[in-house]
Design goal:
Keywords: Transferase. The chain is of the alpha/beta class and 407 residues long. The chain folds into two domains: 273 residues, Crotonobetainyl-coa:carnitine coa-transferase, domain 1 (Rossmann fold), CATH 3.40.50.10540; 77 residues, formyl-coa transferase, domain 3, CATH 3.30.1540. Helices cover 36% and strands 15% of the residues. A hairpin with a 5-residue loop joins strand 3 and strand 4.
Length: 407
C-alpha cells in the first residue's frame, strides 16, 4: 500500500538517536528518507556495539544493533559537507526535498551555508527541523547535550530510583535514552504540523527542538504536582506519588505490578486477596486516605501476596479486571502472546538478502499502515544511485566527486 507520506522526501542530516528516530518514523509512514553521513565514518552509532548486525551467512557486519534500531527505511548517502562541492550537493538535494532534519550544534551548519535562512532562499517552502540539547536560544544554547545529562538536568533522575537512604537510593537514569526518543517523537509531531500548515499556506518554517524542553514537558504529573504544591517530588522507587496501591509487590517466586486506579479496583483486589476489611477501613476507603497511609497498606498487601506464586495472582486478578502485570525481561517481552499478536517483532530485508530484526512501528493506521521496505543501510549504500537518479549526475561527475573525496 502507499504510505501516508509517500509524496514527501526528507533529507536526514542527523546522527545518534533523537533525529534518526524521527526520520525512521517518517520513513515507516512512507516518506523517502535520504540519510547524509560522513564518508568513511558515518553515524556514530554504527560503531556502538556489541552486538552487531549480521549478514545472510551469520557473520557480523560492521554496523551495531544500536544503529539498526533507528535507521530502517532510509537511503545512506555519504557527502563531505565541509567541502564546497559537498555543500553544493546538499543544496541540490534540498531543492528536491520537502523536509530537512539536522542535529548539529547551534550555528554548526551556518558556516557551510546550510542553515535554515540560507536554504529557504533555495526552497522557500522547506520545513527545517533543528534538534539540539538546549535549543537555538538561551544561555546554554551552544552546549552539547546528551540524553543522560538531560535526564539529570531536566528532573527525570530526581524522581527515578529507590527512595533516598535505601539500598540503591541514589538518583537513577531510565534504562532507555528516553529524552532522545521523546524528542524524536515530538520532532515528528512538529514536522507533521508544519506539513499541514504548508498544505494550507504554501509556506515552510523552522522547527526548534530541544532535548531539555522535551524532558521538562514530559515530567507530566510530577511537574504539575510541584507547580501546584511548591514541593519538589522525590524518587520513590516503584511507588506512585498520587496513587496507592500502585507499585511492585512480592510473590513467592517473583515480583509483580499492582496498578490500582480507583476504589472499585481496590475493592476487587481486596476480595481476591482475603483483605475484605480494608475497603471499609477509614484509612484505606479512598485513594486520598490510601496515599496518606501508604506504608501501612503496603505492609498488609505484601504479607498476603508473598504467600502465593506469580501465576496465581496473574490469573485471579486478571480475571477480575484488576490491573496487574509481570515484570518481564526483554526476552520475555517478545514471548508475550499480546506482543506476538500485535506483530511487534519484525524482519526487514537487507541488500545482501538477509533479514534484519527490528521492532515494529506501533502506529496502527487502517488505510495507510507503516511499512518496512529496507533494513538499515550500509554506509554509502545509495550514494551513487541517489546522485545519479535524483540529481542527474553522470558517470564522469560521480567519478570526479569520488576521486575528490567529496562522496
Amino acid at each position: 500500500m502507499t504510505g501516508a507520506l509517500s509524496h514527501i522526501r526528507v533529507l536526514d542530516l542527523t546522527r545518534v538517536l533523537a533525529g534518526p528516530w524521527s526520520g525512521q518514523i517518517l520513513g515507516d509512514l512512507g516518506a523517502d528518507i535520504i540519510k547524509v553521513e560522513r564518508p568513511g565514518v558515518g553515524d556514530d552509532t554504527r560503531g556502538w556495539g556489541p552486538p552487531y548486525l549480521k549478514d545472510k551467512d551469520g557473520n557480523e557486519r560492521s554496523d551495531a544493533a544500536y544503529f539498526g534500531c533507528t535507521n530502517r527505511n532510509k537511503q545512506s548517502v555519504t557527502i563531505d559537507i565541509t567541502k564546497p562541492e559537498g555543500q553544493a550537493l546538499i543544496r541540490e538535494l534540498v531543492a528536491k526535498s520537502d523536509i530537512l532534519v539536522e542535529n548539529y550544534k547551534v550555528g554548526g551548519l551556518k558556516k557551510y551555508g546550510l542553515d535554515y535562512d540560507s536554504l529557504k532562499a533555495i526552497k522557500p517552502d522547506l520545513i527545517y527541523c533543528s534538534i539540539t540539547g538546549f535549543g537555538q536560544t538561551g544561555p546554554d544554547a551552544t552546549k552539547a547535550g546528551y540524553d543522560f545529562m538531560i535526564q539529570g538536568m531536566g528532573g527525570l533522575m530526581s524522581v527515578t530510583g529507590q527512595p533516598e537512604g535505601s539500598p540503591g537510593g541514589e538518583p537513577m537514569k531510565v534504562g532507555v535514552a528516553l529524552a532522545d526518543v521523546m524528542t524524536g517523537l515530538y520532532s515528528t509531531i512538529g514536522i507533521l504540523a508544519a506539513l499541514a500548515y504548508r498544505d494550507q499556506t504554501g509556506e515552510g518554517q523552522h522547527i526548534d527542538m530541544a532535548l531539555l524542553d522535551v524532558q521538562v514537558a514530559t515530567l507530566a504529573n510530577q511537574a504539575t504536582n510541584y507547580l501546584v504544591s511548591g514541593k519538589a517530588p522525590t524518587h520513590m522507587g516503584n511507588a506512585h506519588p498520587n496513587l496507592v496501591p500502585y507499585q511492585t509487590f512480592p510473590t513467592s517466586d517473583a515480583h509483580f505490578i499492582l496498578a490500582i486506579g480507583n476504589d472499585s479496583q481496590f475493592a476487587k483486589f481486596c476480595a481476591i486477596a482475603g483483605l475484605d476489611d480494608l475497603p471499609g477501613d477509614i484509612r484505606f476507603d479512598t485513594n486520598r486516605h490510601r496515599v496518606e497511609n501508604r506504608d501501612v497498606l503496603a505492609a498488609k498487601i505484601t504479607a498476603v501476596t508473598a504467600d502465593k506464586p506469580l501465576d496465581y495472582w496473574m490469573e485471579k486478578l486478571g480475571k477480575a479486571g484488576v490491573p496487574c502485570g509481570p515484570i518481564n525481561s526483554i526476552d520475555r517481552v517478545f514471548e508475550e502472546p499480546q506482543i506476538k499478536h500485535r506483530g511487534m517483532a519484525i524482519e526487514v530485508p537487507a541488500k545482501d538478502g538477509s533479514m534484519q530484526p527490528g521492532v515494529a512501528n506501533p502506529i496502527k493506521l487502517s488505510k495507510t499502515p507503516p511499512s518496512y521496505k529496507s533494513a538499515p543501510p550500509e554506509l554509502g549504500e545509495h550514494t551513487l544511485s541517489v546522485l545519479a537518479n535524483l540529481l542527474g549526475k553522470d558517470e564522469s561527475e560521480l567519478e570526479a566527486l569520488s576521486s575528490g573525496k567529496i562522496i
